[in-house]
TrEMBL record, chain A:
Keyword terms, alphabetized: Membrane, Transmembrane, Transmembrane helix, Transport
Cellular component per GO, a single term: ATP-binding cassette (ABC) transporter complex
Record-given protein name: Metal ABC transporter permease
Transmembrane segments: 21-41, 61-84, 96-116, 122-140, 147-164, 184-217, 229-249, 261-281
UniProt family annotation: Belongs to the ABC-3 integral membrane protein family.
Organism of derivation: Acidisoma silvae
Chief location of this protein within or outside the cell: membrane
GO biological process, one term: response to zinc ion
Cited Gene3D superfamilies: ABC transporter involved in vitamin B12 uptake, BtuC
Localization terms from the record: Cell membrane; Membrane
Membrane topology category: Multi-pass membrane protein
From TrEMBL, chain B:
InterPro entries documented for this protein: AAA+_ATPase, ABC_transporter-like_ATP-bd, Metal_Ion_Import_ABC, P-loop_NTPase
UniProt-recorded name of the protein: Metal ABC transporter ATP-binding protein
Gene3D superfamilies recorded: P-loop containing nucleotide triphosphate hydrolases
Family: Belongs to the ABC transporter superfamily.
Domain ABC transporter positions: 8-233
Keywords assigned by UniProt, alphabetized: ATP-binding, Ion transport, Nucleotide-binding, Transport, Zinc, Zinc transport
Recorded superkingdom: Bacteria
Highest classification ranks of the organism: Bacteria, Pseudomonadati, Pseudomonadota, Alphaproteobacteria, Acetobacterales
Length: 292, 268
């Protein structure tokens, strides 16, 4: 076996499921990493995590209705984002409490729906697929709608890039400059729910938060300017996703007949990248330098 | 006095929050190039007054008239250590942070940012992350952020809080220069007026929701402040500092006051 074959198990590039996985995985990774930078800076990681988990209810509904999970994830994530914004809470403690409660309710609903799924369609795979993803099972016909959702998310981000950055820096500075801080907050949550939807399709509802937070958190450790932070986050997300798809494919040859889950590899790589970034960044401890 | 040349006119302004009247009938006006101290203890309404002038807080009655653009430095911004923004990025956002769409590289913008960084003495740390800067350095960056659109009025909310003595003097000097050299009207809030005494043309002294306004010597007097607080206040001038001291137990003093003991000067 050549070295090349050791890395890329035979048939990797020719496999149609792999090609689809790489396309939608890349789109999900990039969109999640980009919006994730703002989510991390705004200290809304918990809201991102909650939206991911809650979207599982949508995935389960879709299973029950026999439509693509994409629409289920999308519908529920957008609704949940709206609900969180409607609560309109300014104090972060209150916000976390309400987020936690909405999260609990959403997951409870998922429990019921998955139970019904299993009962009616005797598909025990539903739970695994909704929660932990099934990137190799996504039909090629989903490529276009998923790229459409990605395009929409990137377009919205480009549109509100500067006000979003300013608001994330400090809402008071932003509102003094005439930025409508609450509208920007709502748009941020909407883009977040698009990203969560894409990632849920890729690595599952429960794990999609990994692609959202990990690459972004690693990038802001290293980059000193916003454009580079976005670039780096996208790159990290891509590396984790491509690496994960490759390793999962290769794992067929490790334990013959049974591949390991892609989600396991992607989330592991994300964690490794974050740790590496922390070590790399290790900025000097004496940060508050003396007055110049 | 011609009202046409005033940068800011606040007339009979009242502001209330549910169940609490914060400002009652506050009036004053500021001319170009004036430095005005907005002095009052914690909770006296300084932030509320500045936010009302900016239009971020609704008044219950009264009016605010502005002549020209306004720059604003909010109270205590704690920049996140992880914020991937250099000092120059923050200053740049002061110019176009409210615009939609992606920023295109622009030579004009770069020059403006560079000039502003120079004006506040921030060139040396322009490429550092804002979260890594000292308190005084961050204030300079925020002042540059507020000044880059060349406002006629600059509002600053407690910019001297938590700075060391040297940084306080630097920031006060910087504000004085903007006022003197460029005719910018500066309204700066503080709970201690002493660092501003050398540059303050006027004072708006807040207590019990009301304001005493005028030249510093006219306002910071025993009779005026006693009337404002509603009980006896002593104003003591010592070693070029002003101490405002209320009679009564220390913990019921409505302090806008020097909290530290005065050091006796050593005689050589
Ligand atoms: N949004 C608000 N809602 C209710 N009360 C407020 C609000 N903002 C300020 N206050 C109250 O108004 C008073 C003045 O506050 P503030 O203007 O922040 O004072 P200062 O800046 O002088 O410390 C305080 O008693 C404060 O509790
Ligand atoms: Mg205040």
């Amino acid at each position: 076996m050549s070295f090349f074959n050791l890395i890329f198990a035979p048939g990797f590039f020719a496999s149609a499921p792999v090609q689809t996985a790489l396309v939608i995985g890349s789109a999900a990774a990039i969109v999640s990493a980009l919006i994730g930078v703002f989510t991390v800076l705004r200290g809304q990681s918990f809201a991102g995590h909650a939206l991911s988990d809650i979207s599982s209810a949508g995935g389960s509904v879709a299973f029950l209705l026999g439509i693509s999970a994409l629409w289920g994830f999308l519908g529920v994530a957008v609704l949940a984002a709206g609900a969180l914004e409607l609560a309109g809470l300014r104090r972060s403690k209150e916000r976390d409490l309400v987020t936690g409660i909405v999260l609990g309710a959403g997951l409870g609903l998922t429990a019921l729906l998955l139970h019904l799924d299993i009962g009616t369609r005797s598909s025990g795979g539903a739970a695994i697929s909704v929660m932990f993803g099934s990137i190799f099972a996504v039909p090629a016909s989903m490529i276009v709608p998923m790229l459409g959702v990605s395009g929409l998310a990137v377009l919205m981000m480009g549109l509100i890039y500067r006000p979003l950055l300013l608001t994330s820096l400090d809402p008071n500075l932003a509102s003094a400059q005439g930025v409508r801080v609450s509208s920007i907050g709502l748009l941020h949550l909407l883009i977040l729910s698009l990203a969560v939807t894409l990632s849920a399709m890729t690595i599952g509802a429960i794990l999609s938060t990994a692609l959202l937070i990990g690459p972004a958190a690693a990038a802001v450790q290293i980059a000193h300017r916003p454009g580079r932070a976005l670039l780096l986050a996208g790159l990290f997300g891509l590396i984790a996703t491509w690496g994960g798809v490759l390793l999962a494919y290769d794992s067929y040859t490790w334990t013959p007949g049974q591949a390991w889950p892609v989600s396991f590899f992607i989330t592991s790589l994300v964690s490794l990248i974050y740790v590496a970034a922390r070590l790399w960044a290790k900025r000097p401890v004496a940060r508050r330098t003396a007055e110049a | 006095m011609s009202t046409l040349t005033e940068t800011l006119n606040v007339s009979a302004l009242s502001v209330a929050f549910p169940g609490r009247q914060v400002l009652k009938d506050v009036s004053f006006s500021l001319m170009p190039g004036e430095v005005c101290g907005l002095i009052g203890s914690n909770g006296s309404g300084k932030t509320t007054l500045l936010r009302t002038i900016l239009g971020l807080q609704a008044a219950t009655s009264g009016a605010v008239h502005l002549n020209g653009a306004v720059g604003y430095v909010p109270q205590k911004i704690a920049f996140d250590m992880d914020m991937p923004l250099r000092a120059r990025d923050v200053v740049g956002l002061g110019l176009d942070g409210n615009r939609f769409g992606l920023p295109l590289p622009s030579l004009g913008k770069r020059r403006k940012v560079e000039a502003m960084l120079r004006a506040v003495g921030a060139e040396a740390f322009a490429d550092q992350r804002v979260g890594d800067l000292s308190g005084g350095q961050q204030q300079r960056v925020l002042i540059a952020h507020a000044m880059i659109r060349r406002p006629r009025l600059l509002l600053l909310d407690e910019p001297l809080a938590n700075l060391d003595v040297r940084a306080v003097a630097d920031i006060v000097g910087l504000l004085h220069r903007f006022a003197r050299d460029e005719g910018v009207t500066v309204l700066v809030s503080a709970h201690d007026m002493n660092p501003l005494l050398g540059v303050m043309d006027r004072i708006v002294y807040l207590a019990q929701g009301r304001a005493a306004t005028g030249k510093t010597e006219e306002v910071v007097r025993t009779e005026v402040l006693s009337r404002l607080y509603g009980h006896h206040i002593d104003v003591i001038r010592v070693h070029g500092r002003v101490l405002v001291i209320a009679a009564g137990a220390a913990d019921e003093i409505p302090i806008a006051i020097e909290k530290h003991p005065v050091h006796v000067c050593e005689i050589p």
